[in-house]
């Protein structure tokens, strides 16, 4: 048998990828595949939403995933699951392209905003739609003001911070059950990077100051319990009256530090 050229191999792989297309998400099938009684396959994530096959209405009574098909899918180069949105990247099993794909969806965390679009568009959305009083900045050292902050009221707010082309979400929560003001940050990954970010947070009034350095987490969303994040600044509720400006509410100074590995 003649050796297959690189060009022909890519054509064969492309045709195979088109054959093994999931009828639900319209992307390439992902192992382990679930088959209906007539042999139509769907991705494991898509299967969670189905009671019967979307193509023939047959049930999914076969609980054994097809080993050979799964092995073939693992060996093939993969098309990005966001291909229907425009991504043309092909990658191998084990590579993390989809974790950083600029076509994946994310939501704007600003209170009341319903924007939910591609990651690559969120910086433009924030700059265009959320001017001050939201803190959209292009500096590494800035003062923030929270004029309506009430230390006796349960609250949670997300504030976007733009440093160059990096988006951070500041999460500020007044947790009455723990009697603490909690502040943390997470970064929306827009590209693969080994850099680590830290934010030096200073709350101060006159000569009194409370300072803490928070390591920035990297994640797409931030709905988890704030205490589950990697690094959290916790200010005791009893200390807050010493930090609240009159007028002016709570004022903090933020300094972003980048460490390149």
Automatic annotation (TrEMBL):
Gene3D superfamilies: Zinc/RING finger domain, C3HC4 (zinc finger). Residues 22-57 form the RING-type domain. Keywords: Metal-binding, Zinc, Zinc-finger. It comes from the Eukaryota. GO terms for biological process: proteasome-mediated ubiquitin-dependent protein catabolic process; protein ubiquitination. GO terms for cellular component: cytoplasm. InterPro entries: SINA-like_animal, Sina-like_RING, Znf_RING, Znf_RING/FYVE/PHD. Pfam families: Sina_RING (PF21362). GO terms for molecular function: ubiquitin conjugating enzyme binding; ubiquitin protein ligase activity; zinc ion binding. This is RING-type domain-containing protein. It comes from Graphocephala atropunctata.
